[in-house]
Amino acid sequence: MYNKNEIIHKGNIVQAVVVADEFEDKFIPITNEVPMSLLPLLNKPLLDYTLEFLYLGGVEETFLFCCSQVDMIKEYIRKSIEASAAWSLNMKIHILVSESCRSFGDCLRDLDAKGLLRGDFILLEPGVVSNINLRPILKKHKEVVKKDKGAVITIVYQKAGVGQIGRSAEDDIVVAVDHNNRVLYHKKTRLLEDKRIKLPVEIFLLSDEVSMLHNLKDAHIAVCSSSVLPIFSDNFDFQTRDDFIKGLLMNEEIMGSTIYLHLIRGSQYGGAVTNWQNYQAVSWELKDRWAYPLVPSLKENNLLKDNVIGNGTIVPHDANISRCVIGNNVVLGKNINLEDSFIMSNCKLEDNVTINLSVIGNSCTIRKGSKIIENTVLGNGVNIDQNTILKNQLIQATKPDFCEKEDILGQYAFRLKPDEDEDEILQKLPRLHNMKESIETSDDGFSDSDDENLSYTQSPVLDDTKLFFTEVIDSLTRGFEDDLQCDNLILEINSSRYAYNISVKEVNFNVIKAILHMYLRQPTGQRYFSQLLSYFSPILKNYIRNESAMQDCLQAIEDVAITNEELKENWIVFILNWFYNENYLSEESISNWGRNLDQSAKFSVQVKPFLKWLEEADEEE
Amino acid sequence: MATNIEVEHNNEDTLDVMQLISDIKHSQLINSYNTATRTVDFLKSLISEQEWTTAQELMDLVKKRMKIISTSLPYEVVSLNILRHSLKLIREEYRSILKKKKGEDLSPPQFVTPDYREVLDYSETLPDLKARLLDQLTEYKVEMETSCENIANQASEHIHTNETVLTVGRSHTVERFLISAAKKTTFEVIVAESSNILEGHTMANNLAEADIGTTLIPDTNVFALMPRVNKVIIGTDTVMANGGLRAQAGLYVVALAAQHYSVPFMALAHMYKFTPVYVGPHDKTTFDLLGSPADVLPYSSGPMLNKVKVFNPVFDYIPPELVTLIITQQGGNAPSYVYRILTELYVQEDYDA
Amino acid sequence: MDKKKQSKEEKVGADGLTKKERRALKVQARQTDDNKAEQKNIRQHSVPKNGEKSEINQNMAEKGSENVTENGVIVEEVKVPLDKPESGLSMKEKRKLEWEKKLASVKNENNIETKCDQQLSKSEQKAKRREIQEAQRLAKKNTVTKNTEELNSKISPENKKIDSAATKSFPAKHTCSKRFDGSILSPLQMPFRDYKPVELYDSVCLPNIHPAFIELGVQYSSKTILGSNARCISLLCALSRLVKDLRTPPEQEFSRYLELVLQKSTSYLQKCRPMSVSMTNALKLFKSQLTQIDSNIPDEDIKKKLLDFIDTFIHDEILTAGKAISLKVLEKISNGDIILIYGCSSLIKRILIEAFESKKQFKVIVVDNRPLTEGVEMLRRLTKAGIDCTCVSINGLRYVMASVTKIVLGAHSLLTNGYVMSRAGTSLIALAAKAFNRPVLVCCETYKFSERVQADSLVYNEIGDPDILLKDDTLNNPSPMKSRSKKRRRKFLNLLYDVTPAFLITAVVTELAILPCTSVPVVLRVKPIEI
C-alpha cells in the first residue's frame, strides 16, 4: 500500500522542484491572504494544474517550495490526497518551507543547502500550466550533457506569434542560438532601450550558424543539472532565473557553463501565470483545451456562451456577461454587466453593477450601481458601497499600514497605495487584455511613417539633432566667410547628416533654420540678407526639391519667427517673398501652409498680409 | 524544514479504481488492448483482495466502481464493458455452482439463453465462487490476447490478390490484420493521414517495413482515390448497440465516400468494444470530446488565435447503414446483428450500469 | 558573336558535339533552307506520344501539330521550348527573329545579356541538332541528355529513372504534370513521383522568355501564387507586360511574332505548373482576339487594343463577375446563418467580406485542409475584417455540420457534365452536406467553365509536392515516414484537385444567374467565344 512516511531516494527517480511563490507582489491584494499557488484558475487552484502536469509529464517526486501562507498550501495538499487526486497516487509531494526567502534565487540556495536533489531535475517557476511530456526532454538534456560537459540547464520555450494573448509582453525575449540549440544571447525586450539589440561579436565567432529567434514564449520550465543549485549558492546576486541566464552568458569563459534551449512542438503547450495578463491568457487557453489532456473539469452547466460559471451560481436572464470567469456560489443581481473579468467564489453582486477588466476576490460584496472598471483588483472580503466607481485601483479589506483618510472607502474597503511610486506599481501589473480590441500587428509599421509623424514644434529635440544643427551652422558660417563652394558645403552637411542619422525632413528643416540663424546673428539689413541667401542658393536648390521639402522650409521659417519674437513683421514677409520669387516655394505650398497655421498666433497675423497678396496675385493670373 | 505529508486514506477501498482512472485518463495506457488487460488485472485484484462474501456483494462492488469510472471518464468504454462482462460472468458462475449444488443439469441447452429474469438473489455464500471467477478471468484474459490474432487470421478471407485497401490512421488491429494478409497475398494499401497525423505516418511506416506497398495520402484525397479502392478497413473505438461505430474523427466522410462508390466498409473490433449504448440519429452528447486545437491550427499562428474558435473533435459517429461488416474474433457480422452479440456479452439489466 | 562561336568551339564536349558537327551546323545555318524547315515539321509530326495530352492541347486544338511538337520536345528531354518553325520562315529569318527577341528582353535585364547571347547561339545550334537527333533518336538518346542546359540536366536523370522503371505504357515525362492512365496501371503501382519544383536559378538562363513569365513560372511552381483567379490575373498582367515590351523584328508581323513568343512562354509555364482552366480560357480568348485584329494597323495600335482587351477581360470576367456573384449570394445569406467554407478562395472571401459590410449577421466556419493549410490564410483575412470565425479540419466535419445552415464553395472550374473541379476535399464536404441535407452553393465565374468532361477525379489531376506531407513542425515528433529503408514500398500521393459530382451540388452561382450544375454546357454555348 501507499506509505507516505518514507522518502525514497532512488538514483534515477524523476524529480521536480516547484517554487510556489512569486516574490514580486504581482497579485496583491489577493495574495495578501491567499498564496499565489492557490489562486483559482477556472475555479480550481492553480497548484492542482501544476501538480497534474508534473504527474502527466512523468515526474515521480516533487518538492514544493513555499514561503508564505504555508498552512493553506499544506491543508490543500492534504485534502487532495484524501480525495485521491490523480497526481497524488503515484507522485510524492514534499513541502519545503522557508519564511526567510525573498526571491527565487534565495529558494534555490536554500534547496541547495538541504541537498535533497540528486542529478537532473525539473525546475518550475510559479504558476506553470502545461501538458508537456517531460521525460523526453530530460533524456535529451542528458544527451546534451554528454556532448557538452558544461551544459547546466535546458530551458523550454514554445513558439508563439506576436500579439497572441498567451505571449506576454513582460516576458518577451530575443534569443540567439546555434544549430545545437545552445543559447548564445538572451535578452528580455522590455529591458532594451529604444528597441536596439547589441549583439556581441563573440557569438558569431563561436559558431558558424546562428539563429535569432523572436517568436518564442517562455514556458517557465527548465531541466537543470545538479550544478545549477551550487551556482545559485555561489552567486548571491542571482535573484531570478533571468539573472542566472544573464550571468551565465556574460561569464561564459569563467564559469564554463552553457545553456540550451528546447522548443516544444505540436500539441505541447506551456504557460505560466505570472501576472494578471497571463492569468487571463492561461484561463482562456486552458478552457480552449490547448493543454489537452490537461483539461478543466467543466460540465455543461459550467459553460455559458464564452464564459465559465462556477457551481452553484445562477446567472439571471438579463445579465450581460461576456468572456468572464465566475466562481462558485456567486450571487448575481439584476441587470449586471460583466466583461473580461474574473469574479471569485462566494461573491455577491447586487443590481446594476458593472465590472469591466477587473478581478474581484473571494467573498466580496458589491452594492447597487457600482462600477468596477479598468484593471481594478479587489482583495478578498472587500465591501464596496453603492454607486462607487473604481478605476484602476487596488482595494483590500483590511486597513493597510499607511493609509490616508481619502483611501478609506468603507469599513472593509481600503485603497492600497504601495510604497513605491504609484506609476511603477501600476506598470508592474500588466493590463488585462481588452478582448474587444483587435490586437493586430501593424503590417506597415516601417520607420518612414515614424519620421513623418514628427512634429517639429512639439517633439523634444534630440541631442543628435542639436549637434547636427550646430554643425550645419558652423559649416555654413565657415563656408560663407571663406567663400567656399556650395557643393562642398552640401557634402559636409550630408556627411553630418549620416553621422547623426538625421532624417531627410530634419535635414531640410535644419538647413533652412541654420541659414536663417546665420542672418539673425548679424542682422545688418535686408541687403546682407539677400546676399546671404543668394550665396546659399545652390544649397537651397539642393534641399528644397519637392513639396514636402517646401513644407519643411516653411516650417523652419515659422519656427525661427516664433522663437525670435523680436523679429519684425516685414522680415518674415521679406523672406517669404524672396523664397517665392526665387521659385523655391510654390504658391500652392505657401497657401496650404498658410491655411494650416494656428490662426490665433501672432505669427499668423504677421503672415496674413503676404498670404492675402499671394491669393490676389493668383487670381490676377 | 521539510515536511512530509501524512494522511490517512478514508476511502481506501476506492483507491484502486482511482488508480485505474488516473492511468486511463493520462494515457499511460496507450491503446484499448492495454486498457482492457489493465482492467482485467484490476478486476482480479478486486476479487481477490476486497472483502465480499456473496455474489451480490461482489456485484455491488463492481457496480460501484463502474459508476465512479463513468462519472470520471464519460468517454471511456473498454473498462466499463469489461466490468459489465464480468457481471455476467459472476452470474453465470453463480448459477452453475448453484445448479451443480442442487444436482440439476450443469448447463442449459445451448440454444436457450439462461433466463436471468428468474429471481435469484445471488446472496448465497459459495466458497468456490472466488476461485472459479479468478479462473474465468484468466481465461478471459487469454481470450483477449488471442483475439487480435484471431482477427488477423481472418484477413486472407477478406483480401484478394492485387486489391487496394484503404485504411485511415493507426489501429494495431488493422495493422496486424494487413500484415497477416500480406503473408499470403500481395496487395496495396493506401493510408490516409487522419486527424492524428503522426499516427497515420506511423501506420504507413509500419506497413512499409512489413514489405507492403503503402501509399500515404492526405485525408482530403480520399474521395478522389475511392474509385480505385476495393475495400476500406478500419479500426474503431467502440461499436454501438445499433451497429453504428464510434470511431476516430474523419472516418465519417470516408464512410460516406465509400458508400458513394459502393466500396465495402469494414470495421475490426474486439469483443470488449461492443457497448450496449444505443445512439439515436441526432445524438451528439456521446461524441463531443474535443482534443487540443493545436492539431488544427498550431499555437504559433499568431494573434488570429485570440479571435478564432478551434474545434478538434476526437470521435466521429458512423451510422450502421454505412458499415458493411464488423469483424470480430468470432467472424464477420452485419451491423444489424450487433444487438444479438450484446446479449451474449452482457446481461440486460446491466446495460445502464 | 563570331568570337563567342569560336569560344564555343574551344569548349569541346560541352554540348557533346564534335567540332565537325558544329561546323556542319553552321554551314547549314547560313543557307536559306526551307526544306530543312519542312523536314523538321514532318519529323516532329511523326513523334507524337499517344495519350499524352496536356491541358493546352485539349483547348488549343487548332494548333494540333505544334502541340504534338511540344510533346515531342518534352519527351526528347531537351526542355528548352523551341520556336515552332512556321513554314514561311527561313533559318536566317529565324535567327534574326531570335536576335530581335534578345534585344527586347535585354532592355529589361541587362545582366543576362551576355549569357543570353550565348544561349541564343546555343539554342540555334540546338534547333539544328534537333534535326539530327530526330533522325538518330534511338541511338543517341543518352548523349542528348548530357547536352541539355542546366534546367534540363536536372530533369534528365529523372527521365532515365523513368525509362528504367519500364513503364512504357505510361509515358508521363512531364516533371510536374502527371496523368493517371488508370486503364493500364493502378496509380499506386507507378514509380515514385518525379516532382521537382522549378528553381529560380534554373530559370534565369532561359532564353527568349520575358522575365515576367520567368518570375511567374517560379511563383507558380513554389505555390506563391495559389488560386485560379490569382493565377489568371497574374498571367494576364505578365502578358500585358510582354505585349508592351515586344518589339517586332523587321519584316515580321506583330501578331505572328507575338503568337510565337506566347507559345514559348506558355509552354514554359506549363512546365512549371500545369495551367489552370482559368488561365487556358483566358489565353484562348486572347489568342482569338489576336487573330481577329486587323494586322494592317500599326503595331502601337494593335498593342493598345490587346492591352485594352486584357484590361477589359480582367475587369469584366473576373472583377465585375465577382461583384455580381457576391450580390447574388448576398441575397441568399440571412441573418443568423452559419456558413461553412473550405480552403481559401478569393471569390468566397470577397463574398463574405462584402456580406459582412452590408451588416448581415452571420458566422463562418472555415474548414482547413492539409497539407496546403489554405484555411489559415482565409482565417487571417476574415478575422481582420471582423467576421466571427471558427476553424475545424476535414475530420471535424460531422461535429459542425449539424449547426451549419449553408455551405459556400469556390471552384477551380466547372466541367461540361456539371461536375465541379475544385480543391481536393471539396467532394467530402459536399457528401457530408448531402447527408445532413444542407444546401451547397458553388460560386464560379463563367470564364472558368471548361469544355472538358470528367467522370472521376483521377483521369485528370495534378500532383502536388509529396514532400510536403512529411513536413512535421506541427507534430510532436518527427514523422517516421522519412525513413530511408524499404524506400520503394513507401509512396506518397498528394492530389491537388478532386471532382465533385453534380447531384451533390444544390446550385452554381455565376454572374449570369444562379444555375443548376447541369446548365454549364448551356452557358458555354450562350457565352460568346469571340469578344
From TrEMBL, chain A:
Name all W2 domain ranges. Answer: 462-621
Question: Where is this protein chiefly located?
Answer: cytoplasm
Q: Which keywords, in A-to-Z order, does the entry hold?
A: Cytoplasm
SMART domains in alphabetical order? eIF5C
* InterPro entries associated with the record: ARM-type_fold (IPR016024), eIF-2B_epsilon_N (IPR035543), eIF2B_epsilon (IPR051956), LbH_EIF2B3/5 (IPR056764), Nucleotide-diphossugar_trans (IPR029044), W2_domain (IPR003307), W2_eIF2B_epsilon (IPR044123)
Which Gene Ontology terms cover its molecular function?
Answer: guanyl-nucleotide exchange factor activity; translation initiation factor activity; translation initiation factor binding
Single GO cellular component annotation? cytosol
Lineage, top-rank taxon, reads Eukaryota
Q: What CDD domains has UniProt attached to this entry?
A: eIF-2B_epsilon_N, W2_eIF2B_epsilon
Gene3D superfamilies the record matches: 1.25.40.180, Hexapeptide repeat proteins, Spore Coat Polysaccharide Biosynthesis Protein SpsA, Chain A
Entry-linked SUPFAM superfamilies: ARM repeat, Nucleotide-diphospho-sugar transferases
The family classification in the record reads: Belongs to the eIF-2B gamma/epsilon subunits family.
Q: How would you summarize the oligomeric state and partners of this protein? A: Component of the translation initiation factor 2B (eIF2B) complex which is a heterodecamer of two sets of five different subunits: alpha, beta, gamma, delta and epsilon. Subunits alpha, beta and delta comprise a regulatory subcomplex and subunits epsilon and gamma comprise a catalytic subcomplex. Within the complex, the hexameric regulatory complex resides at the center, with the two heterodimeric catalytic subcomplexes bound on opposite sides.
* Protein name listed in UniProt: Translation initiation factor eIF2B subunit epsilon
The organism of origin for this protein: Henosepilachna vigintioctopunctata
TrEMBL record, chain B:
- Report whether Protein biosynthesis shows up as a keyword of the record: yes
Q: Which domain of life is it from?
A: Eukaryota
Its predominant location is cytoplasm
Tell me, what is one Gene Ontology molecular-function annotation carried by this entry?
Answer: guanyl-nucleotide exchange factor activity
Task: Tell me the compartments it is located in.
Answer: Cytoplasm, Cytosol
* Keyword entries, A-Z: Cytoplasm, Initiation factor, Protein biosynthesis
A single GO CC term, please?
cytosol
> What Gene3D superfamilies does this protein map onto?
Translation initiation factor eif-2b, domain 2
InterPro entries, A to Z: eIF2B_beta_subunit, IF-2B-related, IF_2B-like_C, NagB/RpiA_transferase-like
Q: Which SUPFAM superfamilies does the annotation name?
A: NagB/RpiA/CoA transferase-like
Q: Name one Pfam family in it.
A: IF-2B
Question: Which family, according to the similarity comment?
Answer: Belongs to the eIF-2B alpha/beta/delta subunits family.
The record describes its quaternary structure and partners as:
Component of the translation initiation factor 2B (eIF2B) complex which is a heterodecamer of two sets of five different subunits: alpha, beta, gamma, delta and epsilon. Subunits alpha, beta and delta comprise a regulatory subcomplex and subunits epsilon and gamma comprise a catalytic subcomplex. Within the complex, the hexameric regulatory complex resides at the center, with the two heterodimeric catalytic subcomplexes bound on opposite sides.
Q: What name has this protein been given in UniProt?
A: Translation initiation factor eIF2B subunit beta
Q: Species name for this entry? A: Henosepilachna vigintioctopunctata
UniProtKB/TrEMBL annotation, chain C:
| Cross-referenced Pfam families | IF-2B (PF01008)
Please note every region of biased composition (Basic and acidic residues).
1-19, 31-41, 147-163
The alphabetized UniProt keywords are: Cytoplasm, Initiation factor, Membrane, Protein biosynthesis, Transmembrane, Transmembrane helix
Organism domain of life: Eukaryota
Keyword Transport on this protein? no
- TM spans (from-to): 492-515
Where does this protein reside within or beyond the cell? Cytoplasm, Cytosol
Decide whether keyword GTP-binding is in the record: no
Q: Which PANTHER family match?
A: TRANSLATION INITIATION FACTOR EIF-2B (PTHR10233), TRANSLATION INITIATION FACTOR EIF-2B SUBUNIT DELTA (PTHR10233:SF14)
**What is the name attached to this protein's record?**
Translation initiation factor eIF2B subunit delta
Please name the source species.
Answer: Henosepilachna vigintioctopunctata
